[in-house]
Amino acid sequence: MNNHIIPKDFPELKNDTFLRAAAGEEVEHVPVWCMRQAGRYLPEFREARAGKDFFETCRSPEACCELTLQPLRRFPFDAAIIFSDILVIPQALGMDVQMVPGKGPTFPEPLKEPEDLQTLRSKVDVHAELGYVFKAITLTRHRLEGKVPLIGFTGAPWTLMAYMIEGGGSPTHSKAKRWLYRHPEASHRLLKQLTDVIVEYLVGQVAAGAQALQVFDSHAGCLGPVEFGEFSLPYLRDISKRVKERLKDSGLEKVPMIVFAKDGHYALEDLSQSHYEVVGLDWTIDPQSARLRTDGKVSLQGNMDPCALYAPKERISEIVKKMLEGFGTRGYIANLGHGLYPDMDPESVGAFVEAVHSHSRQLLKLK
Ligand code: 1CP
After folding, report:
1. Distance between CA 86 and CA 256 in Å, rounded?
2. Residues forming the active site
3. Coil/strand/helix, residue 52
4. Distance, CA 83 to ligand 1 centroid (Å)?
5. Which H/E stretch holds residue 359?
6. How far is the CA of 339 from the centre of ligand 1 (A)?
7. Where is the Uroporphyrinogen decarboxylase (URO-D) domain (predicted)?
8. What is the C-alpha to C-alpha distance for residues 224 and 165, in angstroms, rounded to an integer?
9. Burial of 346 (0-12, 13-18, 19+ CB in 10 A)
10. In angstroms, rounded to a whole number, what is the distance separating the alpha carbons of residues 121 and 118?
């Protein structure tokens, strides 16, 4: 094992419900966390971030630790997710990425043609380029005091490729998809290069103290089954396989891996056979049919429509109850089908968490 980080003597884990659910084991209540639980819907987040550059914040382990812990001070979430961003990988490859207030992440010089691949670093030393994330993870794991497990994450190769070519968010991703149809060979080269960095990055996160890993393929939905099967799935599989091998070879503990391919319902069966312990679902999939289609092979995570948080509390509770009945209480991690929005009421988030805990305890008692 490399000697850049020697995290040790982490506090003992007190609430392992999330890890047990990921492994399909018995739980006393269904665990719950929310994508973007550290975010602008929290006044304390807005205050801590005020006037500071987004990626500067990402580079400060102290700031990332504080932002990660904020939601846990308010709500009894069963997991924490390290505050960072998926776009730190394109930065590590040498691309400039800026967070433009009101616009989102922006690449002043996106990749336009295959020749532009030469501008990327061919070899990335993840400890040199992304060591700040590892430091944030180690610090946060200590400061969590064993309250709940800490999740590390990455963007999936296709989603990162899409940002690197589009230069930011996009409704169609037509520039990135153009590469898939016009430059398939260069697309595979880029996807392979991203996969290699992602594998090292995820292993480094576990070495630093991450207790689970989530891979976000946020832009799976703009592909169809054929393109996903060629340009995303093989890389997602390569990531889970290689990370598991590398953890074993390095004497590191095995951690559950979660794959979240947003709007990739067409690939549910394939994703459930891709060596991820957990498949994350967006809200367009019915819980019962997701269970049937994944055949009990994996644990499932998701999938309440985030906009259901705009409903009154009683309605949130009803929606949660139905969702729990659909998924069942075993091998299930409650979450939203995508991240929280900045205009959401923290109280509704509290109502969501409370409803998951209380309804699941009730359902488990009835068993
Ligand atoms: O100033 C701010 O606070 C900006 C808002 C924000 C936040 C809170 C961004 C910009 N990133 C983040 C943090 C973040 N990003 C986390 C933190 C941990 C947590 O969940 O609490 C995570 C996991 C991400 C991952 C991320 N970044 C994804 C994958 C998840 C998803 O939403 O699909 C994506 C696509 C990004 C890119 C990104 N970063 C930020 C924005 C606004 C976007 C989306 C841009 C777009 O496509 O339009």
Report:
1. 19
2. 36, 40, 49, 85, 163
3. coil
4. 9
5. helix 346-366
6. 8
7. 31-40, 151-167
8. 19
9. middle
10. 8
Q: Using 50, 70 and 90 to split pLDDT, how confident is the model at 6?
A: low
- Residue whose CA lies nearest to ligand 1 atom number 12: 85
Structure token digits, residue 324: 């729990």
Q: Say how many Å lie between the CA of residue 58 and the centre of ligand 1.
A: 11
CB 344 within 8 A of CB 306: yes
Query: Residue 39: which CATH number?
Result: 3.20.20.210
Q: Residue 361 is which amino acid?
A: R
Count up the domains in the chain and report the number. 1
Supply the pLDDT for residue 2. Answer: 41
Cα dihedral 193/195/199/204 (nearest 10) = 60
Residue type present at position 252: L
Give the range among 8-12, 121-125, 160-164, 288-292 with minimum mean pLDDT.
Answer: 8-12
pTM of the model: 0.96
Q: Which atom of ligand 1 is nearest to the CA of 99?
A: 10
Sign of CA dihedral 319, 223, 88, 7: positive
Average pLDDT over residues 329-336: 98
The residue segments making up the domain with residue 53 are 3-366
Rounded Cα distance between 117 and 319, Å, is: 47
Query: DSSP secondary structure string, 64-94?
Result: HHHHHHHHHHHS--S-EE-S--TTHHHHHTT
Mean pLDDT score of the chain, rounded to an integer?
A: 96
pLDDT tens profile 210-238: 999 999 999 999 999 999 999 999 999 99
